[in-house]
Design goal:
Helix 1 packs across helix 2 and helix 1 packs antiparallel against helix 3. This protein has one domain: Jelly Rolls (Sandwich), CATH 2.60.120.260. By secondary structure, it is of the alpha+beta class. The strands form two sheets. Strands 1, 4, 5, 7, 10 and 12 form a six-stranded antiparallel sheet that branches. Strands 2-3-6-11-8-9 form a six-stranded antiparallel sheet, with no helix packed on it. The protein contains three helices and twelve strands. Helices cover about 20% and strands about 35% of the residues. The two termini are about 15 Å apart.
Length: about 230
């Protein structure tokens, strides 16, 4: 069999094997940080530590910021006892969640959010790697859903896939903000619960290459064959 044909076959199979292994790695998402607010009861602006995930504790902190005087409280969450809530929303006020993605890539975010009838409906999600300069990712709308501690209500779940934002990959510090785009009545509230950050581990190069070679139909023997034929 011509060496040129074997080389082309080898390259095609290697690319296919790499795609398969990449898909396997990307499917193994890890819980990086999650705020349930059940133990970090948010009666102030924070910081509030994440209760779950590989970066739980002081390495992952949530906080709030308002331009005007506000009241932070912990009303019932969506099927739980606690959530993160505040009043007096102006355009630019936000909730912030920070953690580390060192060793991880392909981040996704999910959370529950509701508002009072006079609370802000229009928000945007933004991200940063330094905590100062933020990039807008997407706008979203918050509905006024009634939450209770004994049952889970639908209509307040948010999910965003930021895996295409390469700047977040393998960063020691990342920050996400839920920013109000509008000013609401002084009595209007917005409430957040179960903010969750997931990502996938970055595979070690040596492990990835070895796995790709072993996935080939003719294995390492085929590689040696091609090398020897090329030298002959």
């Amino acid at each position: 069999m011509p060496v040129s044909y074997m080389m082309r076959r080898f390259s095609a199979i290697l690319a296919a094997s790499g795609s398969i292994l990449t898909g396997v790695c990307n499917s193994q998402a890890a819980l990086i940080a999650q705020w349930t607010f059940e133990t970090s009861v948010p009666t102030t602006a924070g910081s509030h530590f994440a209760e779950a995930g590989v970066n739980a504790g002081a390495g992952s902190q949530a906080s709030g910021w308002h331009a005007d005087s506000t009241t932070y409280s912990n009303p019932v969450g969506n099927g739980s006892l606690e959530s993160f809530s505040s009043t007096v929303w102006s355009a630019g006020d936000y909730y912030q969640f920070g953690t580390s993605l060192l060793g991880y890539q392909g981040v996704t975010l999910s959370w529950e959010q509701t508002r009072s009838a006079t609370g802000p409906a229009d928000f945007k999600l933004a991200y940063s790697t330094d905590g100062f300069i933020f990039t807008d990712f997407s706008d979203y709308t918050v509905d006024a859903v009634t939450w209770g501690s004994g049952s889970h209500a639908s209509g307040s779940y948010e999910f965003f896939d930021l895996s295409a934002v390469a700047v977040l990959n393998n960063k020691s510090s990342v920050y996400f903000r839920l920013i109000s785009k509008v000013t609401s009545a002084s009595t209007g509230t917005s409430r957040v619960d179960d903010f969750t950050i997931n990502a996938t581990p970055i595979p070690e190069p040596s492990t990835f290459i070895a796995g790709a070679l072993l996935a080939l139909p003719f294995g390492l023997q085929g590689v040696r064959y091609l090398r020897n034929r090329k030298r002959a």
